[in-house]
Amino acid sequence: MNNSANANLFSRLFDRLDDPDRLAIETLDGQRISYGDLIARAGQMANVLASRGVKVGDRVAAQTEKSVAALVLYLAVVRAGAVYLPLNTAYTLNELDYFIGDAEPSLVVCDPAKADGIGAIAAKVGARVETLGADGKGSLTEAAAIAKPEFETVSRGNDDLAAILYTSGTTGRSKGAMLSHDNLASNSLTLVDYWGFTDKDVLIHALPIYHTHGLFVASNVTLFARAAMIFLPKFDPELIIKLMARATVLMGVPTFYTRLLQSPALTKESTAHMRLFVSGSAPLLADTHREWARRTGHAVLERYGMTETNMNTSNPYAGERVPGAVGHALPGVSVRVTDPDTGKELKPEQIGMIEVKGPNVFKGYWRMPEKTKAEFRDDGFFITGDLGKIDDKGYVHILGRGKDLVISGGFNVYPKEIESEIDAMPGVIETAVIVVPHADFGEGVTAVVVCDRKAKVDEATVLKGLEGRLAKFKMPKRVIIVDELPRNAMGKVQKNILRDTYKGIYAK
Ligand code: AMP
User: Fold this and answer.
1) Alpha-carbon gap, residue 490 to 252, rounded angstroms
2) Which of 220, 481, 486, 498 has a Cα at 20 to 30 A from 139?
């Protein structure tokens, strides 16, 4: 918690700046932006926002490709006391109609090519539209270029909103998670300390900036540490391996690591300059963790967070990083596992619902007081929806989303347990276990498996391999072999797509 006069995240980031010439961001096209430049650009942009009528507390929605200007927009919105609302660049007009209608921003920023379509949607809520393209050009940056850089950062309290991030909404409509200035600042400062960030660090920033991972964890942590980031428009494994020679940290989703492992250029030598590899947003397979350690000599540091809570747990920087576990609760964060039905706290090793509490946890869902109430316990713990356990050593393990829990004949079946068994079989790369409606059993455990093309793995071999290892009620009713699992941009397996694809397989 911050008690200084201005709790605005921007003030906490930049009010005390010792060395304005220090490098903050560099790009592939040769831009080198110092901390002083970044603050000046945010000031110019904040002046433009104010001139376009953006007031304190207004939402500014942005569907923009990743660029330095897009990051400056985020900083400027926060600085102006408004609420930043990033939108996934993949969203269609139909989806944007919902988000813009729900959030009622006063300004929408989008790619020039989409200005007409988005303009019609924005008009319905009386929002203005400004443009910002992937090349950093557009009406917004044109205006900012001639605006003055001085801007008095708007005073905000700890609990005032800095951002709204919509959840991915795989179980119904997306919800807007309201994040305060202190939610963001406190979590980033904790991570700077926990992960040993200093001004000597150089982060390879290859994540999108519409999501908590790339926007808050990667960017805010770097900026708080006065470190530098190499800002990449997208994930490019060969380029990233080259950049490792002069960088120190990579933050990625698990797919980054599996793809990097496919390159012969990934070696102990090519990663020798790096001090830290962080993974999160989706489970990192224990195999990937081990293979990475074998090839590079580095143990990937896996952490666990979500849009609503920022980061909750992390494997230790100095201690043992356990493959397949997401580590301990971060300092100041409380994590517990409860019985999903009674809410009673469970003992170590018992599986249940993961709940968290701390300065990192959001303020609620935008305009959904009932939903918010339903997701919090009376003592302030947020019910994450993730199933898991805390082991004897205090490491948290995630065993899947609550909605993926299979109740077969009254017994709980945790997909992760079955997935781990199948993943351990020779020739299997990865598995997703889903629930599919079953004419006789109500729900049928179904395994969708990706195999090494050279290995001759089929349904019968998988089922045979599971015999005697899993109780009968946990055995998959069907095993489907596929080339790859559907994933979103954050590397999460889209089980909703699998459920939809295979929904008819047990129909009578
Ligand atoms: P999002 O809000 O998009 O960041 O998604 C948050 C969800 O991603 C969490 O509730 C978890 O289900 C999942 N998640 C994040 N980090 C991890 C991790 N390290 N291992 C397993 N699942 C994770």
Assistant:
1) 9
2) 220
pLDDT at position 459 is 95
- Output the pLDDT for position 170: 55
User: Quick check: helix, strand or coil at residue 314?
Assistant: strand
DSSP result, 114-140: GHHHHHHHHHHTT-EEEE--TTS-SHH
Q: Which H or E run includes 497?
A: helix 495-501
From 179, 183, 492, 494, give the residue whose CB has the most ligand 1 atoms within 8 Å, as the site to mutate. 492
CA–CA gap between residue 252 and residue 486 (Å, rounded): 18
Q: Dihedral sign, CA of 193, 196, 202, 204? A: negative
Quick one: pLDDT at residue 294? 98
**Angle ∠(180,186,190) on CA atoms, nearest 5:** 150
Q: Is 314 in the pocket of ligand 1 (CB under 6 A)?
A: no
Per-residue tokens: 238: 């060969």
Ligand 1 atom 15 nearest Cα: 281
| pLDDT at res. 395 | 98
Torsion angle, alpha carbons of 451, 455, 460, 466, to 10: -70
Pairwise CA distance, residues 361 & 364, whole Å: 9
The protein residue whose alpha carbon is closest to atom 9 in ligand 1 is 306
Beta strands in 286-426 (DSSP E): 301-306, 310-314, 328-329, 334-338, 352-357, 382-390, 396-401, 406-408, 411-413
pTM of the model: 0.91
**Whole-number pLDDT of residue 17:** 94
Phi, psi (degrees; rounded to nearest 5) at 408? -110, 115
Divide the 508 residues of the chain into consecutive groups of 10 and give the mean pLDDT of each group. Answer: 77 96 97 98 98 98 98 98 96 94 98 97 98 96 98 98 87 86 98 98 97 97 98 97 98 95 98 98 92 98 97 98 97 96 94 97 97 96 96 95 71 84 93 85 88 91 92 90 92 90 88
Provide the H-helix boundaries in 62-161.
68-79, 93-103, 115-124, 139-145
Cα–Cα distance measured from residue 301 to residue 66, given in angstroms and rounded to the nearest whole number: 25
Residue type, 240: I
